[in-house]
Amino acid sequence: MTTFNGFSQKDFDVFTINGLDERMTELKSRISPKLQDIAERLEPTVSSLAGDQMYIHVAKHARRKTNPPNDTWAALANNQRGYKKLPHFQIGMWESHVFIWFAVIYESPIKEDFAKQLKSNKQEILSQIPDNFVWSKDHTKPETISHKDVKDREFDELVERLETVKKAEILCGQVFNRDDERLQDEETMMELFDEAVRTLMPLYNLTKKLQ
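Above: the chain sequence. Below: its structure as tokens.
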């Protein structure tokens, strides 16, 4: 079992391996155990702050038959059987970066009500989230929107989309470029992940009355 001791360039290079089986073999042996270990270390903090028992779900990519995955993750949610319909936290990586998210994705039945909560608490949310955080409207794509841009002009559009578009999603968190030297340091990264969870927990708390 590989325990997390930082991320190396070889970890990111897994996403350049051709072939589904070949890439999945490396993901399962090199990346998934690290994400499992990170999630296990974060779980007590997430469960305590959320007031819910959180369970770990490591991506298996089981439905893929041809194309290898371009990203992978471990999720923390308050259900042992699944996470996609629930508000959850994700730690994962693309070839370009590592991410930690709070996420409400398109399978969630509370999206519309959560959008209303976000509207009602707009100023508080925007002031609580630091400028080095980012947002996303699609967990299947690596692109992000800076919190500054969300504050200045994009929050209303993101939330309106979440409320009205069936496939809409909203994610907030941090990304760390693969060249960020902090990624190589286990202790530093665990502190950053812990801080991110604490920063994002108010978003999770907004969903509790909706679940």
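The CA atoms of residues 103 and 171 lie 4 Å apart.
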